[in-house]
TrEMBL record:
Native species: Macrobrachium rosenbergii
Coiled-coil stretches noted in the UniProt entry, renumbered to this chain: none
Keyword Lyase: no
Sorted UniProt keywords: Disulfide bond, Lectin, Signal
Protein name: Lectin
Taxonomic lineage from the root: Eukaryota, Metazoa, Ecdysozoa, Arthropoda, Crustacea
SUPFAM superfamilies found in the cross-reference section: C-type lectin-like (SSF56436)
Length: 218
């Protein structure tokens, strides 16, 4: 009788232990689920803050760029449009000679990228044949900008009627026609005026403000 009682007691203890273990496992699972959910929520918050910070930083950079553009300047004798400076020569030279003179001025023959720039330079060159940094010297019919080698897709409104025509197979270099009617191609050994281009730089007062606000290592 005592043995049976002990056996039942032992079974009861084992069942209680198993039940307790199952309960503990369920609680552990619940806790782990809650922890995982908290981690996911925290991750989403961090990611959202990162995106917001990136947008703020982007906005600040755009604002600084606009502010800086307003404070960009050119050297005496150069003309400014947006973030570029342009030099219109008084002397004449061949196309390659013109480019070398621009390089000597820490610039290059101009690369035109938009209509405003085209019109601005056309007005500056008015009355004189004036070289720009465009030619098809490397490959006939493929016009490249000297400054970076990129291919120019013909913008018909920039050209004189019927141009470029490579008359007599000798016209590889591009210039503003003196009639103010647009671009034309010519033999590269002809001597014309030329337009150089280089980036504008910050005026001393704006640059000094940036220097003062930039922390330096000690």
């Amino acid at each position: 009788m005592a043995g049976a009682t002990c056996f039942r007691l032992l079974v009861t203890i084992l069942l209680l232990a198993m039940a307790g273990r199952c309960y503990s496992q369920q609680m552990d699972h619940i806790q782990l689920s809650r922890i995982a959910a908290s981690i996911n929520n925290l991750t989403e918050v961090v990611q959202a803050q990162a995106v917001a910070s990136e947008k703020v930083a982007s906005g600040i950079m755009k604002m600084l760029t606009l502010m800086a553009t307003d404070h960009l300047v050119c050297e005496r004798g150069w003309f400014k449009l947006r973030s570029s400076c342009y030099f219109i020569s008084k002397d004449t030279s061949t196309w390659e000679g013109s480019r070398q003179k621009c390089i000597a001025l820490n610039s290059d023959l101009v690369k035109i990228t938009h209509d405003d720039e085209f019109n601005f330079l056309r007005d500056l060159a008015k009355g004189h044949h004036t070289y720009i940094g465009l030619s098809d010297i490397q490959e006939e019919g493929t016009y490249r900008w000297a400054a970076d080698g990129t291919i120019h897709q013909i913008v018909e409104s920039w050209w004189r009627k019927g141009e470029p025509n490579n008359q007599d197979g000798l016209e590889d270099c591009i210039y503003y026609h003196s009639s103010n009617t647009g671009l034309n191609d010519a033999a590269c050994l002809l001597k014309f005026r030329y337009i150089c281009e280089k980036p504008a730089h910050l005026g001393w007062n704006f640059a000094s403000v940036l220097d003062e606000e930039t922390p330096t290592e000690k």
